[in-house]
Amino acid sequence: MNNLVVKVPKMQSAASKEADLIRKLDSLADEIGQVQRSLSFNVKSKAQISAQLLALQRVSSANATKVGKLSSTLADAINYYSAAEKRITQHPTGGIPAKNGKKGSKGSTGKKEEKKGFWDYWNDLDAWKYITKAGVVGNVIGTIGSLLTKGDPVGKTVLNGLKGLSGIVGDVAGLVPKSGASFDWKKLFGIAASESGKMSIGEAFKEQLGKFSFGKATTVSDKIKVGAKWAGSVLTVATTAYDNFIVNDENNSTGRQIAETIGESAVKIGGGIIIGAIAGTVGAPAVVAGGITVLATWAIDKGFEHFTGKGAAEWISDTVLDTGGKIIHDVGDAVGKAAKKVGDAVSGWWNSLW
After folding, report:
1. DSSP-assigned letters across all residues of 110-141
2. pLDDT digit string, tens, across residues 4-43
3. Least C-beta-crowded within 10 Å: which of 18, 121, 147, 272?
4. What residues have CB less than 8 Å from 4, skipping those under 6 apart?
5. pLDDT tens digit string along 205-235?
6. Angle at 305 between CA 302 and CA 306, to 5 degrees
7. Cα dihedral angle (311, 316, 318, 322), rounded to 10 degrees?
8. What is the pLDDT at residue 46?
9. Is 82 helix (H, G, I), strand (E, B) or coil?
10. CB–CB of 98/105 below 8 Å?
11. For 178, which DSSP code?
12. What is the DSSP letter of 150?
């Protein structure tokens, strides 16, 4: 029985290049249109030249539409294949499919399919993240456990270690009791009652944003907590950049790598704030609210992976980059054309006075 081998990263790279080509063709069509509209009345054979330019503009626009359909079809094929592969083989996209659906059988390369172990399933469930929400003790255990079992490359392991350390520092700073208060040992395990209690979504959102504000930090421990929060966000950007620049399994250009790093980081950090605010409205202890945040984030991410083949942050970022650029370009072009028409009308009116 023959096996179907689909090189998803190369397909994704091709789809990305097609999106770039669409933008270039649209830009070329606009430039041709500008040349056509700017022809001087003194140009010889203006009518013929104008007709040829209009024809070229239509060809360029038509080609952009055709490439757009091709890009959309390719993106759909990637998504359908990825979803089907996960449902049928329970294998990550690009892996070696099991022959006749039997685990451990040989695929087209002659190598045995790698079986998942306990830690693979553990990490797939983001179990360590749940543990890190159990106060300082849980954060230390979860961070060390994650570093030892995930098997990430050294560079990413270091970044993840630093991110975990920033969280631990922030939790330790949070243990310092307020003036006149006694030490609450329950905070060590994240089971202390929430200091804020139940809140409205607006109040919870303000509280989440307040964690980034040095202006609201009145004590040294508060300032350390804010610093640790910022450090964690910076390291989120760093780990995202590592995936886009070092791993780069889509063979993206440098510009695209930068854009994806910014977009994915914004979704991760912004999404964390929103989900954290929703979880914070229940007024539960840190371990409960944190668990809700982790569970919601995991469910959303897995949902996106199931239907699109990409995590939530990556899919949202790619969608904005692939479609937003054209929308911005089209709006800008429309505004530019309108402004030029007004300018031409005013210029013609002014010249007619003299």
Report:
1. SPBPPPP-HHHHHHHTTHHHHHHTSHHHHHHH
2. 666 777 777 777 777 788 888 888 877 887 777 776 656 5
3. 121
4. 97
5. 999 999 999 998 889 999 999 999 999 999 9
6. 85
7. 150
8. 65
9. helix
10. yes
11. P
12. S
Rounded CA separation 168/236 (Å): 15
Residue 272 near residue 301, CB atoms below 8 Å: no
Q: How far is CA 89 from the centre of its chain?
A: 26
- Rounded to the nearest angstrom, the gap between the alpha carbon of residue 278 and the centroid of all alpha carbons in its chain is 20
**In the block, which residue shows the tokens 């109040």?**
203
Integer Cα distance of 64 and 24 in angstroms: 8
Retrieve residue 112's tokens.
């045995």
Q: List phi, psi (to 5°) of 98.
A: -80, 135
* Collapsed DSSP state (helix, strand, coil) of residue 106: strand
Give the phi and the psi of residue 106 in degrees, each rounded to 5: -85, 140
Q: Exposed (0-12), middle (13-18) or buried (19+): which is 345, by Cβ within 10 Å?
A: exposed
**Cα 266 from Cα 316, distance rounded (Å):** 10
pLDDT in tens, 235-254: 999 999 998 888 766 677 78
Torsion angle of alpha carbons 69, 70, 71, 77, nearest 10°?
110
Beta bridge partners of 240: none
Evaluated on CA atoms 84, 90, 94, 98, the torsion sign reads negative
pTM (whole model) above 0.85: no
Matching residue, tokens 């929430």: 194
Tokens of 297: 């984030």
The whole-number pLDDT of residue 100 equals: 41
